[in-house]
Amino acid sequence: MENINDIRTGFGYDSHRLVEGRRLILGGVDIPFEKGLLGHSDGDVLCHAIIDSVIGAIGLGDIGRHFPDTDPEWEDAFSIELLKSVIELVRLRGFEFLWLDTTIVAEEPKLSPYIESMKEAISKSGIPSGLINIKAKTNEGMGFIGRGEGIAACAVCLLKKV
User: Among 22, 28, 53, 157, which is 20 to 30 Å from 94 by CA?
Assistant: First the structure.
C-alpha cells in the first residue's frame, strides 16, 4: 500500500497586466497580439502558475522565493527556462508527474490555435506532453480580464513519489 505522502497536489495562480510594447508569451509560445504581459521576467502567466503548482506540490514555497522580482538575474528571463529548473527539483526530490491541468483566462486574443504549441513548449521542460492539459476561457467581459487589462492562469499538478 502506498503512503499518503507519496501523492502530492499543488495549485498555482498568476496574473499580469497587459501593456503596449511587450511580447505576449504564454506557455512558452510567442503569440501575435498588440500587447504583452508586464513582468520582471517575460510575464508568462501560464508558466508562472505551473511553477507555483509544482513548487507547492513539493513543499518549497512559491515562485517569488525561487525567482524574486528584486533579483536582476531573472529580469526578462524566459519562463520555460525557470520551469525547467523547477522540474529538476521534482526529480531531485524523487517525484514524477502524473498530471498537469491548467486554465488561461483572457478576453483576447483567441488562444485555442496556440494550445498544442504551448503543450509542446511546456513538454520541453520535462513534463511529458501526454500529461498536460491546457484550457482557455474568457471572463465574459467581467473584471480586469474582461476589460482587457490583463490575463490570468491557474494550474494544478499531481505528483507521485517514485
Answer: 28
